[in-house]
Amino acid sequence: VQLQASGGGLVRPGGSLTLSCAASGVIFSINNMGWYRQAPGKQRELVATITRGGDTNYADSVKGRFTLSRDNAKMTVYLQMNSLKPEDTAVYSCNAFDVRRQYTYWGQGTLVTVSS
Q1: Per-residue pLDDT tens digits for 50-76
Q2: How far apart are CA 90 and CA 76, in angstroms?
């Protein structure tokens, strides 16, 4: 399984950005997918996860601002980020959990910088 993340960049406070993460390879047993982030000097933290059925879970810090969606036909998840704040600046990484292998795959990170 390979995960290809895209969509990071520089955005002003209050702006919006959409990240995408596409899974490819042997993906029939992929269930949960999600995004995590790591800011400089901080530990990696959960941003949001989504099940194959579309149930979502968000970190309190992003609730009401970020929306995670999923296209199972494309095995791609989309993280719509609105009302971005400087504290959202981090490297965002996506992952996917393979229920058959009981293994979590990680994609490469994409940098999101929120700055004026």
Answers
A1: 999 999 999 999 999 999 999 999 999
A2: 21
Structure tokens at 82: 């609105």
Which sign does the torsion angle of CA 112, 78, 85, 47 carry? Answer: negative
Q: Take residue 13 and report the two structure tokens written for it.
A: 């406070």
Query: What b-and-e string marks burial along 17-55, b requiring 16 or more CB atoms within 10 Å of the CB?
Result: bebbbbbeeebeebebbbbbbeeeeeeeeebbbbeeeee
* pLDDT value of residue 28: 83
Q: What is the rounded average pLDDT for all residues in the chain?
A: 95
CA distance 78 to 73: 13
